[in-house]
């Protein structure tokens, strides 16, 4: 009997133009028991790294090719030993059982066509009915007078709706929308209006219809900006804590705003400082927050490129006072970050693990309340030498337990990603 071969080949179709279906797809195991018998084709999940026209999306799974010999138990003279067909079948079904239920994260774009060429600084929230609501600023470019706040909705099981403009201030650009789920069905949308971060004012709108209709803007008092980049968090005691920051002519500084009445009024606390005059002249901005115990908050901040690391601090009184800032070991190319604490206590960080480039975009997990971190998934990565960025991410844990992410894709579009909870490591 002539020997035959079994192959495991990766196969990953694209769902539709402009979207990448990065879920776990089957390979095909082709098993020929003998030359005169019909080949047996069995789908087998494989680990893969996909390349596509817009870049490369690597993951914890890697493309592989497994070559198996099949045939009789007695090898022919002058040939290598031949694995019995029964043994190959056993091996293949073992692979099937081992990989059953394996998943990958899914990537798509929020829109295919839009009435604006540039988009940045996205945010995402889940409404009470399971609808995902995303927002960002869009126009001809960051800081341009035609930039407004835009939004799209994705009903549970549905597709993203076409972008709609929620607000545009005449002759002034919009900046950094932030979505937050308040009491009941109410969604808050915070944003900034002004010619630059040194001169902007804070405002908010509300929706009780899962993002379909919104109130007119309410302007915050002078000196209060609301959350400047990352979402607020509701503390165990019921207060809302928002990370905010100031970008003056020479320095940056992070602050906190606290509301004890559901967002109707706010008090301001800070600034968060290193305690080192040289570093405090550089500063930090855009805090993202984790409540690791009731009233105990850990904050992570973006820093300028001259520092090149994410900064952190901890508060033991609900965000009113803070320990001196410290630089972590986590690289930061002066780019936005986001974090969530899962229901089981694991902490997840979404960031660019580079001191110079806003790529790749990666997820890290912490099992010790944000003290140490381990990267576990590259969400997306640009090709080496490819210009662009995957940046300014936002992240929530949805009602199914999965992670929902949005981020800037080369300043031209907003990417959406779903990361199944099963992909998050359970232990170090």
Trace the largest sheet across and list its strands: 3-2-1-6
Question: How many β-strand stretches?
Answer: 30
Number of helices: 2
Average pLDDT, rounded to a whole number, is: 84
Instruction: Name the structural class.
Output: mainly beta
Shape: globular
What amount of the residues lies in strands? 35-45%
Radius of gyration: 25 Å
Named CATH architecture of the largest domain: 6 Propeller
CATH class of the largest domain: Mainly Beta
Q: State the distance separating the first and last CA atoms.
A: 49 Å
In total, how many domains does the architecture comprise? Answer: 2
Biggest β-sheet strands, sense, barrel: 4 strands, antiparallel
User: What is the helical fraction, as a range of percent?
Assistant: under 10%
Examine the coordinates and then state which fold CATH places here, giving the name of the CATH topology of the largest domain. Neuraminidase
Q: Poorly predicted ranges (pLDDT <50, ≥5 residues)?
A: 1-83, 95-100
Structure description:
- With 428 residues, this protein is mainly beta.
- It folds into 2 domains: 4-99, no CATH class; 108-423, Neuraminidase.
- It contains 2 helices and 30 strands.
- The chain has helices at residues 85-99, 277-280, and strands at residues 4-9, 26-31, 40-45, 50-52, 55-57, 66-70, 106-109, 118-126, 132-139, 148-154, 164-167, 174-181, 187-193, 201-207, 218-219, 233-234, 240-247, 252-259, 267-272, 285-293, 296-302, 309-315, 326-331, 338-341, 347-351, 361-366, 374-380, 390-397, 403-409, 413-419.
- A 4-stranded antiparallel β-sheet has the order 3-2-1-6, with helices on one face. The protein has a 4-stranded antiparallel β-sheet with strand order 7-30-29-28, with no helix packed on it.
- A hairpin with a 7-residue loop joins strand 26 and strand 27.
- The radius of gyration is 25 Å and the shape is globular.
- The model is unreliable at 1-83 and 95-100 (pLDDT under 50).
